Structures are given as C-alpha cells and as structure tokens.
Amino acid sequence: MERIAMTQDERDWLEWLKRARDGVITQRKAAEKMGVTERWVHELLRRMAERGDAVVVHGLRGRPSNRGIGKDTEQRAIEALKDPEWHDFGPTFASEQLAKRHGIVASKETVRRWMIEAGLWQSRSRVVKDVHVWRPRRSSYGELVQWDTSDHDWLEGRGEPVKHLVRLIDDATSRSWGRFVWRDATRENMGVLWEYLERNGRMADVYTDRDSMFAVPRKPHESEQDRKRTDRLTQIGRALRELGIGWIAAFSPQAKGRVERSFQTDQDRMIKQLRLARVTTMSQANEFLEKEYWPEWNERFAKPVSGIADVHRPLTPHTDLAASLSHVEHPMIYNDYTFSFAGQKYQIVREGVVAGMKRQRIRVEVRLDGSIHARFEGSYVSIKECVAGAQILPPVHKTSARKDHNAGGKSRWMRDFWNQQQAPPLWRAIRESNAGS
C-alpha cells in the first residue's frame, strides 16, 4: 500500500470529504467546514473516486518548482559570496549586491539558505534587549533634524584616514545628508550645515548632544539658572540663533536614537560599499556619499515626503550664510579707529570711519574660506593690518557701505572645501589673508 504524507489540514479535508461521500453530512456542510465552495467539494469528490485519498495532496508536491533557481546560478552566487571582500556580508545585504553586481535575483531567505549550506553564515537566535520607550516621530518634514558625528575607520585603513562622518537626519522622514570631514570641529560642522541649508532650507529645530561645539558648560559653582541667564553661546549656537533655528539638547544617546541607529546601519552597509567601490581618498568618499549612498538611503529607508508638510523655510537674499556660519568676535574700537584681533592690530580705512565709532564694539567675522570681514552697526567696513610707524588717518564723513551677500545661498565657496586636509589655525589664516591683500 502506498504511503501518503499529509499535513493536519489535509487530513481534516479528507475526513470531511469522506463524510460527504458517505452521506453523513451534505456537500454544503462539508464546504463550510473546509472553507471552499460547494462546487469545489463536488469536484474533489469526483476526483476522489479516481485518485483515492491522494486527492487532498497538492499535485506539485515533491516536484521541483517552476520558479526555482537553477544549480548553475546558485553555484555562481556561492562563488561570489566566497569573495574575500564579501566575508562579512549578511544575507540581506548580500542579496542586494548579488542583484546589483551579478544580476542574480534571489530573496534574502534563499541567500541565507545558500550561505548556511556553504558554511558562510551561522544561524543565531535573537536576544531580547532592553526596551526603551520610543518617542513618536515629528509630523512635519524639517520640523526637527538630528545632528551628530560618527567616529569610525570608514576606509578600513585604505588610503587616507577618513575617520569622521557628520550626518543630519530628519526626524519625521529619516531623509539624510552628511559629509566625511577631517576632524569633528566647528568649522567642518558649519560646512555640512551650510550644504544642508542650501539644499533644503532652514529647519525649525536641530537636536544634538551637549558637545562643547553646541553647548557652553557651566562654570564652577554656577547653577543651571545662572548659566541660562548669562546666555553664553558657542559659535554654532550663535549661528543657529542668527538663522532662526532652534536648538534642543539630548541628555542621553537613546534620546537621539534615530541618528544613532542610522550610524549602526552606516557602519555595516557603507563600509562594505566603500570597499566594493575601491574608495581610498576623502574626495572619493564624499563623491560616493553624494552620488550613490544618500540617494540610495533616502530611496530605501526614508519615508516619502509626499503628503507630509514641509516646514523648511527657504533662504532669501537677506540670509547671509557666509556671515552667520563664521567665527565671530566683537573687539573694541580704540580712539585711533583701530582694534586688536587674534594677536594682530587692524585699522579701519578712511572711507569706513564714522562718528561715534570710538570705544564701540565691531563685529569681526572669520569666514569658512579664511577671509576676514568687519561690520559696524550693520554695515561692512574695509580694514587693513596696521604696519609699525604708519600714520593713522583722521575720520571722514560716512560713505555708502559695501554690501556683502552670498547671492541668496548660491555661493561657490564650497568648491574644494572638503579636499582640504586641515583647517589652518586662526592666527595663520589671518596672516595669510593679510599677506594676500
């Protein structure tokens, strides 16, 4: 007698069919119990008379699937998976790269089975981690942007030492932008923020940790209320205030979990993609980010912005990013219309001198491109480095102020910005600027 392997559901179907055949129940009742139509029960009874109990077993059981992947394709996939550059690929990422680079389309579960059978992957049970209360996403695009830096060996020791990734990720949609930088400092972070603003406009708030770039620590024996009352700001804090962008401090890594989890994904996927792309320099890494990684990330992991309110505020001709995103100090103007800045003495030229300047503060800006600009009461004035023995000119009547705008946020200052390995010290930038003027 032939032995037929059946599932429990198939045994139940066979039992209802036999009862309908023997007249114990009606075909309609059997159809209700089996969850099919009465017409299908009638057809199964007809086939049962010909095939016997095997009528409830699917006819394709035990046969190879018509949609199955051939052995030759499986072998090609395993050979690709054994490539040393793929040694740390998981099934999900490996499935994507097989389709992208070798044209082998297979589900991640199929690739997982191949890797387990080839000894390239070991199945492991998931461990339940500590559960944290999740904060719901913001409802609007640009309402809150998380901002952080990940320190990692992104090129795995190949070529130039690319160690820092500055990233801004929208809280509502997870749309991201970022750059590799030589160091995690104010100048580099301002540069990444500048590019984000030119691409998207001004967000409502940014969410960062309490690093010294963003927050001024309390003085000894100073209360939190006194610190807030003094309103001391870092250079980034001042720039955000001038641009009308709010700042929210995170008090734990879990509080800014969205950007922290995105860095975990980057340290898994991006490193492997940089390896496959043969990236060895900072400029190549940033080109890869802009042309491949961010478009793919925003397409695959970010929520669509259609149907979500965009609260980014556009840049206007009055938005001077070059002035806001700079190092700003306010030295005092002496009686001879000079001022000291970064160990150097500067003279306000005759055309910029106006009555009432003496003993007042002048705003001095060291731009991200290294140039120095001075502004008094909203108008930029020309300055020059004082030379020993030079005659100080008397004041003259005020002339029209030189306007200094950044062409509505479309300046070209970022050209070759990310190829500079180190920003010069402030004193050296000032000396080089004076030498070239």
Task: Give a verbal description of the structure.
This protein is of the alpha+beta class and about 425 residues long. About 35% of the residues lie in helices and about 15% in strands. The chain contains 13 helices and twelve strands. It has helices spanning about 10-20, 25-35, 40-50, 70-80, 90-100, 110-115, 185-200, 225-230, 235-240, 255-275, 280-300, 320-325, 425-435, and strands at about 145-150, 165-170, 175-180, 205-210, 245-250, 325-330, 340, 345-350, 365, 370-375, 380, 385. The strands form three sheets. Strands 3-2-1-4-5 form a five-stranded mixed β-sheet, with helices on both faces. A hairpin with a 5-residue loop joins strand 2 (about 165-170) and strand 3 (about 175-180). The model is unreliable at about 395-400 (pLDDT under 50).
> What characterizes the major β-sheet?
5 strands, mixed
Q: In percent, how much strand structure appears in the residues? A: 5-15%
Proportion in helices: 25-40%
Radius of gyration: 34 Å
Output the keywords.
single chain, 437 residues, alpha+beta, five-stranded mixed β-sheet, four-stranded antiparallel β-sheet, 13 helices
